[in-house]
Amino acid sequence: MKKRNAMNKVSKVLSLATTITIALTGVAMATPSTQIWIPSTDIQTYKTIHLGIDNYFRASGVSKSPPTTAASRDANIMDIGPTVGISPYEKVKAEVGFDYLVNANDPNDNHPWSGNFKIGTPEDSIFKSSPAIALGMYNLGPSQSQSIAPLVTSGQNIVYALMAKTLPVVGRLSAGYYHGSEKALVNTSGNSANDGVLLSWDRAMTEINDKLWFAVDYQGGNNVDGAVNFGGSWNFAPNVSVIFGYDVYTKQSLAGNNTFTTQLDINFP
69-83, 85-99, 177-191, 250-264 — which is least confidently predicted? Predict the structure, then answer.
């Protein structure tokens, strides 16, 4: 009987996940709930509207091998957009969102609007001590060449899967994999380099203050998204926090020079 009930629960989870995925496939909808750079297994709660305002400021001048030579400095990046929780179920959560993302000094991206969706289950929801699981897509839009604008991400059409587990003292460890557009995610030779690993560590620093959080994440791949990122956040209010971080791009000839990032997160209600 217990086995049958467990199978029924799994069946319901898969059924809902499939339904949501099919419903969103035709939506031209960018960043899902993230760590600093990569997606996380966190998902917005039902009816919560999350507004993210992200800025990426160049740490130094023009890169050694910039994608363009018109500017004396690699472009800063601005990103703003909402993400909304759409699942009323505790054990199966889902969110959708869209973003407007452009170069700060030259908004030359022909498709600045992009979107995302994510479905998943929190830790301990499938069985005791089960990891959190998330499946999703982000930077959805018309595929375009990397050469249009460094770090403008519309059209990457990245699909990913992640698992995460919180360990005592250590914090939460996450691991996953992604696959994206062959056209948008290329290496320095222009050949497709559209997949890689996703790794992260994050932890609430309750020993210091309940409002403080730190994280380190990594996105693999010989493309514009490859990066190591680290930083922390402070909750200025129950529904308002700001991340302060630093992004080290593994392929600066594609992504430009490293950036400082500030990410304002506001939840409504």
Answer: 69-83
> How crowded is residue 1: how many other Cβ atoms within 10 Å of its Cβ?
5
Q: Nearest 5 degrees, angle CA 51-CA 57-CA 59?
A: 150
- pTM equals 0.82
DSSP code per residue over 131-165: PEEEEEEEEESS---GGGSTT--TT--EEEEEEEE
pLDDT one-digit tens code per residue, 18-70: 333 333 333 233 478 999 999 999 999 999 999 999 999 998 866 555 444 44
Handedness of CA 125, 238, 203, 220 (dihedral sign): positive
Question: Residue 157 is encoded by which pair of tokens?
Answer: 């059409």
**Torsional class of 189: left (φ above 0), alpha (ψ -120 to 50), beta (otherwise):** alpha
Report the candidate in 120, 115, 118, 172 with the shortest Cα–Cα distance to residue 141. Answer: 115
What is the identity of the amino acid at 233?
A: S
CA dihedral 263, 264, 268, 269 (to 10 degrees): 120
CA–CA dist 160, 41 (Å, integer): 11
Domain hosting residue 164, numbered range: 2-268
DSSP letter for each residue of 192-234: B--EEEEEEEEEE-TTT-TTEEEEEEEE-SSSTT-EEEEEEEE
Q: What is the CATH number of the domain that holds 245?
A: 2.40.160.40
Residues 6 or more apart whose Cβ sits within 8 Å of residue 240: 264, 265, 266, 267
Count: domains in the chain: 1
Read off the pLDDT of residues 154-208 as tens digits, 9 standing for 90 and up: 689 999 999 999 999 999 999 999 999 998 899 988 899 999 999 999 999 999 9
CA 125 to chain centre: 22
